[in-house]
Amino acid sequence: xxxxxxxxxxxxxxxxxxxxxxxxxxxxxxxxxxxxxxxxxxxxxxxxxxxxxxxxxxxxxxxxxxxxxxxxxxxxxxxxxxxxxxxxxxxxxxxxxxxxxxxxxxxxxxxxxxxxxxxxxxxxxxxxxxxxxxxxxxxxxxxxxxxxxxxxxxxxxxxxxxxxxxxxxxxxxxxxxxxxxxxxxxxxxxxxxxxxxxxxxxxxxxxxxxxxxxxxxxxxxxxxxxxxxxxxxxxxxxxxxxxxxxxxxxxxxxxxxxxxxxxxxxxxxxxxxxxxxxxxxxxxxxxxxxxxxxxxxxxxxxxxxxxxxxxxxxxxxxxxxxxxxxxxxxxxxxxxxxxxxxxxxxxxxxxxxxxxxxxxxxxxxxxxxxxxxxxxxxxxxxxxxxxxxxxxxxxxxxxxxxxxxxxxxxxxxxxxxxxxxxxxxxxxxxxxxxxxxxxxxxxxxxxxxxxxxxxxxxxxxxxxxxxxxxxxxxxxxxxxxxxxxxxxxxxxxxxxxxxxxxxxxxxxxxxxxxxxxxxxxxxxxxxxxxxxxxxxxxxxxxx
Length: 543
Hints:
By secondary structure, this protein is of the alpha/beta class. The protein is built from 20 helices and 14 strands. It has helices at residues 2-34, 40-50, 56-59, 62-65, 72-84, 87-99, 109-117, 124-155, 189-195, 235-257, 262-265, 267-277, 300-307, 333-336, 349-357, 406-412, 416-430, 449-459, 473-477, 526-538; strands at residues 166-170, 205-208, 215-217, 220-224, 287-291, 311-315, 343-346, 364-367, 386-390, 434-438, 464-467, 483-485, 502-506, 523-525. The radius of gyration is 26 Å and the shape is globular. The relative contact order is 0.10.
């Protein structure tokens, strides 16, 4: 009984500390709002992404980096940016502002200086200790990851290897594959690639790492296969890999003691690259495709695959645009400016120009139209006069301030979601049209209570149908007479070639009509413009 009471006391104490920490962060965020400094997070991220890490170029080990040695500093910066510069760091910044104290966070010295240059106090002693301790923990985790990878390599020795040309998609889920019980055409990623006119014609299969029964699309087999670093076969090559592990671990440990921390940080990634380097060329994919989702880091093994003749491609399944401010456009270079992907697939020339503005390199960028991503088997039952409606759900604003100027939009108009959905629903009802509303994603555990209540209110209207968030937007749009979206959601860009009317609607007047983030889609301001557009454009298409 005594141990139970002690445990309960500790749990309650921990819960109290977490609530107290959250309240302090909220105070910090409120301070930024009062000072009109919501863009602080984006400014910090941009500076961090552009600030090179010293000594790596001169002191990077070819044993660790292999084919990526020429991009060693950038690879480390990408990895550190992606794994250390997230909500945890900005939570530490908000907590420091809310408690009027110094920031304590594990960052290398040159990046801690960036925080100082942005007007923040930094506890150098505690942050330096946190940084050194994080390196030790990272090194330990990497040794464990290496052990697990080696066990997987050994376990895969008896498995058959591919004997044909194929494309390999990295990081997919079941929703990205054709479903056996799909109703009608499937708008998943693999089906998109199979019908894409620019795909490689010499491949016989699309492969991925999802444990799912094989299927097909447009004559291509779609099936699971082990990750590329698990295709290594033969005792001699396994022994060479083990020998490399021993040598690389010793180098990383010794270098960590003398301040060359980057080898310890990327050790497990380097093992995967070495395994790919030892693989026969003909078992690797012709194309390796990665979807962009904030993933600036390019795995080290892709450099080895490229050296063996494979192509590495990063594709966008969304437009990833943010609104223009009164002061002008803000760069999104911190999202991809430091990336080193050699090839990109984008939706249109607007997105191509956006990428080129934020990149120092000149990668190959191909405009391919909207890229389907995920779909769910569903038989949509909509009214014949339905209009597809898409909004933007912003979760806890204080945790999104470093991401997009959408934060300023929501800060200026806390009731934005309510105004958008109610105005659209009422305007459509006035004209005898129905609203088919699809939320962006299922995040019920993060969804604000106010937004949940709003959805219940909207669902209660007689002219509204709620569509499951995991149904493809294309599946919905092709059954509707028009599209109304909150700025600047990607579904507005689908099916423009079919002449389905599509607009962005801003009920507040905050969005600027000439914003290039609209990709040429008209921007309607206020309820009156929305009503006129519905009357002039949609009523004539009424089924």
